[in-house]
Design goal:
Cytochrome Bc1 Complex, Chain D, domain 2; signal; mainly alpha; globular; single chain; metal ion binding; Cytochrome_c_Oxidase_Subunit; electron transport
Length: 100
């Protein structure tokens, strides 16, 4: 019985780790859409705003402002509307965690 519980616990931990890894990979997929303008992992080329290492709350607020139309843009207002608020929060956190 004890061995069975250990295996079940180990299995549950492995499943949780796989689920967490899948979530990280999904956020990377969403963030990849930003690479054309903001560079790979948010390290933009000259002339575009870098996102790597910025404050996640500020990034999220900018994304929400684009989505609502409060902040004018040429394309960001369209792109941001393609994501849920939670997805935008995850994207902001992803870029904030990247090194400058």
């Amino acid at each position: 019985m004890v061995k069975t519980m250990k295996w079940l616990t180990a299995g549950a931990l492995c499943a949780a780790a796989v689920g967490a890894q899948a979530q990280v990979n999904q956020v990377r997929v969403w963030a990849a859409a930003c690479a054309n303008c903001h560079g790979t992992e948010g390290r933009a080329l000259q002339g575009n705003e870098p996102l790597a290492g910025k404050d996640k709350d500020e990034l999220y607020q900018k994304l929400m402002d684009f989505k609502s139309g409060r902040k004018p843009a040429t394309i960001m207002h369209q792109l941001s509307k393609g994501y849920s608020d939670e997805q935008l929060k995850d994207i902001a956190a992803y870029f904030a965690a990247q090194k400058k």
